[in-house]
Amino acid sequence: MRYCDYYGRVFCQRCHQGARSRIPARIVYQWNFKEYPVSDIAHRFLSDNHQQPVINVSAIDSRFYNRIRRLKKIRELRIKLVHIWSYIRLCNIAKETITKYGNLYATFSTVPNYMLSDADVYSVEDLENVQKGELFRTIAPLVQYGQYHIEGCEHCRAQAFVCELCDEKNDLLFPFQVAYVDRCEECGSLSHKKCAIKRQKDEKPCPKCLRIRQNLERHRCYSEWSLTPIEQQVTMMSSLND
């Protein structure tokens, strides 16, 4: 009988021929990349899903990024990558821009599509590449050249934000400037971090969130008014005119 470290059970020698594999749970909870004995069925399952992006690190363990410094740095890059791609994919100029790594738009195909839309999802292979430093070497140039293009491209700059608090129109903000800007979790608006800190200190609401709530309230009142009987509307209008 042989023990399978993945299923936590013993198998006969016919079903467990001595294969070894990395265990996803040990990687996530212990950052342990050692290989352990697994049964044949576990080995096939782990091999088949080695490249599947099924590990949402933040959902599994919210402290994971703080425990693993290398992964925390990768997450910062991936957050930037997601925001940068939202500009690059819509920019025709980027499709014609050439960098030392080749066509700027085409270089983004060197990473899986899920990395361009979600900063927290990983496959086991991705975590292995984080540990080896390969994922950093893949993503860092995309972020560097993508950011350089966007900040200098008139088409991309037209999609930039202005600080909701100081309204400084000469200082355009982009969501990938994570060290410089603050992003409202509710409405997605951007502001300078220093402005956001002052707003929070003064206990003031987000200006855009406030406008959204006011507009919703205005539409709600209008909808209620439009559903009232005609006679009541006439009376209300008369009272308003008086």
UniProtKB/TrEMBL annotation:
Molecular function, one GO term: phosphatidylinositol phosphate binding
Pfam families reported in the protein's UniProt record:
RH_dom (PF13901)
The record's InterPro entries line, in alphabetical order, gives:
Autophagy_HostDef_Reg, RH_dom
Indicate the segments forming the Rubicon Homology domain, all copies.
2-216
Q: Which residues cross the membrane?
A: none
Q: What is this protein called?
A: Rubicon Homology domain-containing protein
